[in-house]
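Annotators were shown the component list below and the corresponding predicted structure, then asked to write short factual statements about the assembly.
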Amino acid sequence: MGSLIKKFTRSQLAIPLFALFLLVIFNLIRDPSFFSIDIATNNDGNAVLSGNLISILNGASAIAILSIGMTLITSSCKGQDISVAAMAAIAGSVFVSVLRSNEITIPVLLLAFLFGCVVAVLFSLFNGILVAVFKIQPMIATLILFSAGRSIAYWINGGATPTISSPLITAIGGFIPGIPIPTPIIIMVVFLILISLLLRFTNLGLYTQVVGINEGTAHLNGISPVWIKLIAFIISGVCVATAGCITVCRIGLINHETLLLDAEMDVILSVAIGGNALSGGKFNLYGSVIGAYIIQALTVTLYAMKVPSAAVKAYKAIVIIVIVVFSSPVAKDFVVRMYKKLFKKQAEKEVQAKAA
Amino acid sequence: MKTRRILALILAAVLALSLAACGSAQTGKKSDGVIKVGIVNNPPSESGYRAANVADFEKVFSEANGYKVSTFYSLKNDEQLNAAQQFITDGVDYLLISAAATDGWTNVLENAKKAGIKVFLFDRMMNVDQSLFEAAVISNMEAQGKMAVQWLLDQKLPEYNVVHIQGAMGSDAQIGRTKPLDEQFANGTMKKVVQQTATWDEATAKQIVESVINSGEKFNVIYAENDGMAKGAVAALDEAGITHGKNGDVVVIGFDFNKWALREVLAGNWNLDVQCSPFQAQKIHEMIQTLEKGGTLSEKIVINEERYFDCNNITQADIDKYGIGD
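Structure shown to annotators:
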């Protein structure tokens, strides 16, 4: 038991899980029914789950998927891609324009997603080549698409906010008839499983970390840092397309200006909250995903507390500062030292009591 | 040495030619009846509204209507100022401006006045003396909000429990469309269930409405400050099985007159959509024609006429005529 606790406190996931736990406790005290889940019948006549917990899991799925790609890029390239949200707008626009030029059927839907994926991967590879081959700092390299991405999406959309409507779109962004869980949650889980299997069985996870920790060593051991970095960008491209398409399907509309607005910051934050060093190296995918859920839980909590519009960002910032400070090595060291001090005193007391 | 002399010759020739061009343009201006217009606007990529606005000006200020048009698009005020100054130097007859920011224009407009160029403002007002421009054709966001609130009061609902989804805080549209509703909240005629910004984001609007539904609080009106956010809100209603629109439990209100939004009103999924008209070109065209005929303009500030459609009075013809986008 003791060793289990020790293992947990040493784990990278300790702080994010603890933060999530605190948020849950806070909400339960504030409103005991906060996490109650109901079954409602939606306007299409399906029985579906509803409640804040579902809202959090559902609303975070796009950020969570993006954070998977961001974790890999962070680990191997020692930097972040700040253009993911803008690229998601491009992928979403491609997705919508393919759907709008055809009648929406399942094959067309898959084709549209494939097109979105290809475009997103190409753009992501553009970033990747700048970073891996030309060795430009990731933030500078991706600044290009960060500023140009939404203009490109505008150009694809022809300046309007095109809409798509079909039961198939609702099935992806909302609920598949007969399944009470929101589809984005299912997509997120499947996606996470697929990526972790990929990382495990191809050693890609290990190679990525090696490149992030020491490129020279990786190179000497026959791992090509350039390729590993490019692969991270390719996977991130697929994440971007998936997140973009889910978000489009939620509303049935693409707005290049607001699709996943400011999401790149939330994504980088979830990687950081997840206990991953933004300077690269070791990583934990699940940490990043938990980070995304923490951010969404925070947002939903603030909505439920009816925090005034203008103050939402400030409240969010305060909580995030606390989490980030507590997960910093300095704070961790401090906690460990305090714990040891207390524990030692107690041990000494016990020894004294025995002696007496 | 020789190359330098040739270069100097070429430069001199270019200078002479351009001067000649200027001269001929100024003298030939009235003889062929072409009116030279410089348009400074925000880029069409700014929004669907702006795309429609730019298209409207392209349509009205055409060669067929007797205009020779130069345009410049930028979101940055300093670039717009430079372009306006360039148009003045080029010697246009009229300068039409939708400014990126309200300040810093006095100097340029004074130069225009000295050069005898008449200035019209459209879409947005500027912080300048009214003597510096002929007229301004603008939208009044607050009037749009008032229109929506008045329509809502006219429905005589037994009670008004409003979910208010705001645009990006501090934007013109947000301030204008929030104020009339805030007055109702203050009067107590309507009850504020939630007032939250979704920064024009559809998905955020959906989350806000989800959170209200989860809290179990009763509401019967959704007042979203643009069409996209109304669509997001309706997606949340649909998932929770709450009826909306004509004969529904919840009244849905949007703004901006996107064609797809008007179709939602026509289908009875939404109750009301209020126009934010991007069509100012025709009005300015009429005023320029008056001036050209030697007439005078009666008003300085022209509020662009805007309207609304609700699910009982809208027709397909209205959508084709007034809707923006597709």
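Statements collected:
1. Residues 20-31 of chain B have pLDDT under 50 and may be disordered.
2. Chain B touches chain A at residues 44-45, 47-48, 50-51, 166, 169, 194-197, 199-204, 206-208, 210-211, 213-216, 228, 231-232, 235, 237-243, 258, 260, 324-326 (CB under 8 Å).
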